Amino acid sequence: MSFFPDVPKIVFEGRESTNPFAFRHYNPAEIVEGKTMAEHFRFAVAYWHTMRGTGSDPFGPGCAVRPWEDGTDSVPMAQTRVKVAFEFMEKLGVPYYCFHDRDVAPEGKTLSESNANLDAVVKVLAEEQQRTGIKLLWGTANLFSNPRFVHGASTSCNADVFAYGAAQVKKAMEVTKQLGGENYVFWGGREGYTNLYNTDLKRELDHFAKFLHLAVDYKTKIGFDGQFLIEPKPKEPTTHQYDFDAATCAAFLRGYGLIHHFKLNIETNHATLAGHTMMHELEYARVNGLLGSIDANRGDELIGWDTDQFPTNLYLTTQVMLVVLNQPGGLGSGGFNFDAKVRRESFEPVDLFHAHIGSMDCFAHGLKIAAAIRRDGALTDFVKTRYGSWDTGIGAGIEAGKEDFGSLETYMLKKGNADANVSGRQEMLENLVNRYLG
To answer: Quick one: which of 128, 112, 224 has its CA closest to 168?
Structure first.
């Protein structure tokens, strides 16, 4: 039985193609900077949006048409849904998927019942992975939807909730390992505060770190060799979340002795909610050795919340790829997970294909543009020249640790004044990038 009988296998046809069910730029076998596009991206489908999204919003219930759904939240329905997901991914040609434990299996009345439900669905996931060759990029636990997590999970004021969250993560880690997951993500959906009047900030941060240390210990115990990832997000649903942005996460990990165990899973819409560009968040993670994976989406500049739209902005994808290509080895075990949902008005199953096809093409196009910019060296040459004063003379001495305040004072007293600054040429460089996009 086919769940998408009218959709063919999506293949590359080239930029002249007008076929909406074909790639114009994404050619998995095309080599760019020594790697195939498939190796650069390691694209993944987000199970929660693609398979569980209903099109609901704060003003109305879901209106998505999903013919395979029977209206229940049962284990048999969850098992059928797995087969729908893998047919979708097969036809789309993505090599990976990602999930939360509660996306793929219904929550039971008790933890043991929830674990049994998950095991029953994981059996089908494993079978479909074996049948198709599609792999698990990362798994994670949903520690934010159930009312028990109203005050958070690892940062809850209720110690029993901390314990429940630990047990849930333990199971999710085991399942991720069982399915060959290459990473495990921690997203603190409610790990933060809404009001400091009722919050012991220091204690909550300590508990968050304790939770992560326990996870590291269990990772070693079970021999899970995947990469641990933290996904920064500044707010929503809380007023302030403890994984606010890449810089906050880096400081937290260093402060609690966790820096060597984690990298970051950077999401575009979370970057903009924090008041940053995606390029900034990626570059900050990269220069700190923390860039691990990417949740590929975008926000709406006119809406101040997490809209999780599919990324079809060529400027955005070019900037992302300029950073990723600058990291030796790219994303390593990470990938590009489409943490994005079709718009409420795009309610038919076929819209899921159009959304992913367009985004995969946009990233492939951005990769080619970024590679061309790097090949010509226009940006790197400008930056090198701009910082040339640090390569010789007093600048080189400062960087080498050979100068102190006294020697620098002597240097400037003798010289009299600093050399004149030169223009940053921002507009010229923006024009330069536009040439490549054109």
So the answer is: 112
